[in-house]
Amino acid sequence: MGGLEQRFPVPYKNLSVEIKGNKTDLVVCRYDDHFLVMATQIGTMGTVLHARKEQGFTVQPTFNVSVIFGKRDEPMLLAITRQLIEHISSSGSSMPLVLSLGLKDHSMDTLKGIVSAVIENRLW
Amino acid sequence: MSSPPSSSSGKALDFEAASKSAVASVESLKFKPQDDIAGGVQVTSFSEIVDEVTLHFQIIRLAKQIYVWIGSNSANLGNLYAAAPTRPNNTVSVTSILGGASDNTGSGIARRLVLKTGLNIIVACNIPKNNPMLEANAEKKLIEKLIALGYSRPKSQSSGPGLSSS
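ok -> structure tokens follow
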């Protein structure tokens, strides 16, 4: 059929969890130069955020987190992104993160639920 | 004088039954399973060799949106574009959301995907630019797969106001 016999080059995880009563679909992909994480409760990717580590000359890394598509007035989305990029960095990877969040509510419990679900199913 | 209990409770029961059946019909409208998406969304990954170039494809199907990644040779994410049909006139809007717009390969693919399938799409494209044959081949394989997976109907005829509608 024309397919290749070797492994597909992008490892991924695809699962579903429940966070505060909302079914949340989670997809985590590891590309060669980015991590892609999708967490959605609404059937679309929702807001897309980007986070990267800035390699400065000081000991402590700094991070740049921004919304690249969607809601720009929801600080909780940036907070989730920042927690995840810091976790990626402390796990030893310098790759940037593209995170999509399609959430029904923006409460602290949802934030904690998303962060812990992603960390539990990370590919870094 | 109190009304006979049977008729008043009869009315209440009627109302309750009517609202229950209304709710049931709305629920049945919402739950129209199209694919068996058991726990999570549907992810399809495949690779094809086209003209001696290896193309990798990843299709992630969400309920109301589709994410597509096209890679060649490397597994870099590439440039990200969002595209969707726009009212009126079924035109297509495309925007670059990561990677800048200096390379138009991905945006062309995104636009044509939406034109042919009518889906709301996010495309991550990692194809080298200035290679229209590769671009066209990638697009063709992708559309074949989308139709084979049932995510979009093949357009049998171009739609027009003059054609007969049965």
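Chain B has three helices and six strands.
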